[in-house]
Structures are given as C-alpha cells and as structure tokens.
Design goal:
This protein has one domain. The protein is about 70% helix and about 0% strand. It is built from three helices and no strands. By secondary structure, the chain is mainly α.
Length: about 60
C-alpha cells in the first residue's frame, strides 16, 4: 500500500515539475516535445534564468 502511494506521489510530482518547466522554458521544440508526452530533456534546467531557478527551488527543492 505504501509503495502504491509513493508511486502515485512521484508520478504527480514529476507532472508538476514537467508542467513548471514547460511554462518556464516553454515554446520551441522543448514545448512541443513535452506537450506531446515526451520526457524532460537533459539539461533543461540550464534554460532557467535566476528568477525561474529561484521559483523552481522554492516549489520543488525546499524541505
């Protein structure tokens, strides 16, 4: 039961990260690929400016 809950939580968090990155980096080939169900591209965080990176940290990395 706990494993199922953890799997679902992880799936939801991945979706939130994916949606955030689609909005923050968005457009171009990255946006088309991601909205098409593609995976998060390697190195996509390099496309975040300082403000977007700060938002990403607060939303997903702060404990």
């Amino acid at each position: 039961m706990i494993a199922d809950e953890a799997r679902e939580w992880t799936r939801q968090q991945y979706g939130k990260v994916r949606d955030y990155l689609l909005t923050a980096v968005g457009g171009g080939e990255v946006g088309v690929t991601m909205t098409d169900g593609g995976e998060i591209a390697v190195g996509i965080l390099d496309g975040l400016d300082a403000g977007e990176w700060g938002n990403f940290e607060r939303q997903f990395l702060d404990i």
